[in-house]
Design a protein that fits this description.
Number of helices: 8
Number of strands: 9
Mean pLDDT: 83
Low-confidence stretches: 12-50
Radius of gyration: 17 Å
Distance between the termini: 42 Å
CATH superfamily of one domain: Glutaredoxin
Order of helices and strands: EEEEEHHEHHHHHEEEH
Strand order of the largest sheet: 3-9-8-5-6
CATH architecture of one domain: 3-Layer(aba) Sandwich
CATH topology of one domain: Glutaredoxin
Shape: globular
Amino acid sequence: MGKNKAWNAKDSPRKKSGKAKFVIFGIIAIVVVGVVAAAYSGVDFKDRSNSVDTTKGSPVLGIQSAPVTIIEFGDYQCPFCQKWNRDTKPLIEKNYIDAGKVKLTYMDFAFLGPDSIKVHAGSYCAEEQGLYWKYHDFVYANQGHENDGWANAENIKSLASKLEGLDADAFGRCIDSGKYEDRIKENKNVAIRIGVSSTPTFIVIGPDGQGTEVTGAQPYSTFQAILDEKLTSQNPN
């Protein structure tokens, strides 16, 4: 696999089966351009008749009024998602999100087995304690191998207990309740409905409602070019 490839459902032995939230108007017809290895498709989403419903996704990272939105579809067991979260996301946060130019919403596309559902549900248990994004980054930083048990309920409770500021007992009760598992499945269905088939997949939406699809753990330079183009179109002078 190329270092920037996306993690495709076909690559796994298992088949695909907040706060301020929003519905992003954009496209959604996924056009396959070139071969699968062409991770940045450059596909534009211009049809406002459809929407990406992010209301059950993560709390927004950044300010709600930011003119550009990144929607990420990921699985905590996906190694390419981990790579993007480690290598690219920090630079986007520093240069765009913290500057009020971009906001990010993470959508659960938990297709790499039943453990993915548990570890994703944990993000909303952490959100109950105001720790969604700390959990998000902490889990990726401590990711194990796909479906080797690192993300099952007991191991996630043990891992989360090491997260600073987390009430481990409350988190454990939340995980055991299973109360967020339907939410995870709904977010996966959103991804399927718009044609997402691999992780990570991103839709970058500008202030005009038009979006661009990016697939794979693309480097910061790829996102920088897209984000600057979106922002320039807002302020051409």
